[in-house]
Amino acid sequence: MTLQSRLSNWVNAFTPTRRRFLQSASATAATALVVGNLPKKAHAFAYEPYPTDDELETVVTSCAHNCGSRHMLVAHKKGDVIVRLSTDNGTYQGDAYGTDTEEKPQVRACLRGRSYRSRLYSPERLLYPMKRVGKRGEGKFKRVTWDEALSDIARRMTYLKDKYGPTALCDQSYAGASYGVLHKSDQIEGLLGRFMGMFGCRTSCWSVPSYQGTTFSSRITFGTIEDGNEDDTFAHTKLMIMWGWNPAYTFHGGNTFYYMRMAKQRGCKFVLVDPQYTDSAAAYDAWWIPIRPNTDAAMMAGMAWHIWDNDWHDQGFIDRFVQGMDPGTMPGWAQGQESFREYIMGERDGVPKTPEWAAEICGVSADDIRKLAEMYATTKPAALKASWSPGRNAYGEQYNRMASALQAMTGNIGILGGCAEGVGKAWHAEGVAYPYDQWANVWFASIKSDRWAHCVLNYPDVKREEIGIWPRNDELDGVIPNIRGIFYQGSDWFNQLTNINKEIEAIRKLEAEGDEESLFVCMDSTITPTGIWCDYLLPIATHFERHDVALPWYKGHYYIHRPVVIQPLGDSRTDFQVFTELAYRLGFGPAYNPKATRDYFDDPTDVDEAYLVDWWHKVRDHQGADIDWETFKQRGVYKFILSQPHVAFRQQVEQGVPFQTASGKIEIFSGQLAQITDWTRTQYGYPIPAIPKWIEPWESLNSDKTEQFPFHVISPHPRWRTHSIFNNIPWLRETFSQELTMNASDAKGLGIGMGDTVEVFNDRGSCIVPVYVTERCMPGVAVLHEGAWMDLDENGKDRSGNPDFLTLDEPSPAGAFAYNTVLCDIRKTDLNHRPGWDQLATARSHVFRRDL
Fold it and tell me: Please, which pLDDT band fits residue 49 given cuts at 50, 70 and 90?
């Protein structure tokens, strides 16, 4: 008997009983209703006709955001409307339903991606070009035509360039909502940088808010930011130290959970070093080590001392692959300079960095520091996953460099199950489909991203080191940029950079000089807090409405095709269309988009296809993809099968290939830093030690400022947003809320209870937010997730709980953004908290539904 026959017999055997039960229940109900009014017919759906699956067209596409991964979305559409979204089920590369293997895992979207219909059809969706008619920040706009908007933007660009020079316009693009191989918003390879470079007017922003300290560390230490393993290597580790890493919220790879679950099943032990007990710690039953924020480098130094004191270090690995770990591995030209071991053992400064020394700084007991050091040094292989969050601090680069030193001294680099990553870029994707030539990264000044406001407010009395000016070899070297406007492409940076108070002050200063003297343009698919402060809002088509290919995000070895699923809503255009049309108006259209003619603004179909076909040829030639373009489009996804797990620096360790540093080794002692004589002529501006060191940050629980501001606020990434994206999605807001998490003992001392509204404040600003009281956060620390859409009251207080009204924009030398270097105080308040633009009738959509 077949399985189908057995199932059929089983169902039939039980059906009569169920039928008799229903018949009996119906008869009883009918008797009860004889003397009453008959009920009205019930309908299954609120709207009819409701399409069933067999009536829907299925189209493979992907997520598009800067979230820690990039997964498959499957759009189920009726005509030109997306009815629902699903995700990978294993079939889209020609495999059987449910295929999900270690070699070829599914790339399944999370709650954020699955909620995207709510963003696509949001009442706050930008449908038409809008022009500001009120004060900046007031939220008053009127609808204009594309011709009117682009003509005025082109005219004002030319005026500002001619009057204020080639640094007048600042590029603040980022990978928020327009990140693919063709439609790309990105500081280095992006469409805006190419456009501004060819126009001859661009102040670039060289620092990345998420991980600039980490980027610096990886480049100085390894010579590259491709220092990450693919996530499948996690399955082979025996010890996973999640240092400031909460993979339940920020994956750092497409299949992180899949492989970490494998590791757990194979006996891997998990440790979390973090000021709060996270969902990841609960999921993996991790040993939680609470640590004072900003003190991670000190704890790591204490671990290094204990490892050396017990001879647990891997001297063979150090001798072969490391520069400057100890006196014997110092370069000949640097003999006599301090090595890392001499610093740790206190041979120069007389201060051994013992676990007891570290415990006084970081609040972790010396015994726990010793225990973790022993676990890490004696377990092979072990993965110290030094996440980005502890590097978003004053001197955050020292934490990342200290982590690299621990990874190197224990020989856990270049081996399966180990971990070298700081930045964590792994398998290299072919990332650019449009022309990437000498214009792609032309800038006439380059400053640290969050110092633009400082530059505007103090121009021209600004020292180059204050704003991190990148050095040049021409007449513009050291010239302070005269910033008069900003293009925000795929970026909500006005809401997301440190010290929003200073940004508001700067934009008000420019506004006071008159509309002609500045220009702020926001290019996005929906209204954002940044857009409220701009002169023009340009409606950009979402990734469902343009042709592209999705890249994996830092990890993952696959590509996902993104067809035009639905036609652009309203009068939306792609970024590439907008920049191409502006380029024609400014005189360089054919050079900017060589495959297009002027009608690209109205129909990009053939041009986009041509760029993507050429790009796929590179994928086949350079990476060995074994299907043609048409097959890729039909399947929707291409997952590469690697011959072995991708391990960063495996070739260096196994085959002797030099590291990409000047010495060809892992540089714990940086020859580049050691030879700098004039720090003001670097983008760093201030001295950075040649070896990793503990440096006291300007604010911490160890500083005297705690007398006035006794709490340390950290602002990690939320699970329910991607930075500020999705903040206005009702589905997600029903699941999670913006709250200040604080320890129960701290709350009791302040007379604060669960759900009370508090004001979080310091000498820079304040925000209003409800409280979540718990034991999952260490005393003295408060957690306020980043990305809430700012909402100011009449006194300039933020009612949404945005922590960047509390942050400081002072430059950490290597460019790290000090988002987590914040002291504050907390008090109960009667001021109103407004949880979001989608609740309590605070939606701003009315701004875009009227003509003024």
Answer: low
Packed helices 366-378 and 355-362: angle between N→C axes, nearest 10 degrees: 120
Q: Which two tokens stand for residue 179?
A: 């990140």
Per-residue model confidence as pLDDT tens digits over 564-577 = 999 999 999 999 99
| 200 and 225, same domain (yes or no) | no
Domain total for the chain? 3
At 843, is the pLDDT very low, low, confident or very high (cuts 50, 70, 90)? very low
Q: What is the residue range of 333's domain?
A: 212-427+652-681
In 668-781, which ranges are continuous DSSP H helix?
A: 671-674, 730-735, 744-750
Rounded Cα–Cα distance for residues 132 and 142 (Å): 7
Tens digit of each residue's pLDDT (9 = 90 or more) over 360-386: 999 999 999 999 999 999 999 999 999
Neighbours of 288 (CB within 10 A): 18
- CATH, residue 766: 2.40.40.20
Of 457, 459, 450, 536, give the one whose Cα is nearest residue 494. Answer: 450
d(CA 435, CA 422): 30
Any domain includes 587: yes
Res. 434 pLDDT band, cuts 50 70 90: confident
> Do the beta carbons of residue 95 and residue 126 sit within 8 Å?
no
Average pLDDT over residues 611-615: 97
Distance separating alpha carbons of residues 341 and 313, to the nearest angstrom: 11
For the entire predicted model, the pTM comes to 0.91
Q: What backbone torsions phi and psi does residue 176 show, to the nearest 5 degrees? A: -75, -55
In this prediction, residues 578-583 reach a mean pLDDT of 98
- Residue 633 and residue 667 in one domain: no
For 696-734, the pLDDT digits (tens) are 999 999 999 999 999 999 999 998 898 998 898 888 887
Which CATH number fits the domain that encloses residue 144? 3.40.50.740
The predicted structure's pLDDT at residue 616: 97
DSSP letter string, 143-205: E--HHHHHHHHHHHHHHHHHHH-TTSEEE---SSS-BSSSSB--TTT-HHHHHHHHHT--EEE
Question: Contact, 471 vs 681, CB < 8 A?
Answer: yes
Q: How many helices (H) and strands (E) does the chain have?
A: 27, 26
* Chain centre distance of CA 421: 16
- For tokens 């072919």, the residue is 430
Task: Report residue 124's pLDDT band, with 50, 70 and 90 as the boundaries.
Answer: confident
Beta-carbon contacts of residue 821 (< 8 Å; ≥ 6 apart):
293, 294, 393, 394, 697, 698, 699, 700, 807, 808
Residue 25, token pair as written in the block: 């229940």
At residue 834's C-alpha, the angle toward residues 832 and 838, to 5°, is 155
Alpha-carbon torsion, ordered 722, 727, 731, 734, to 10 deg: 110
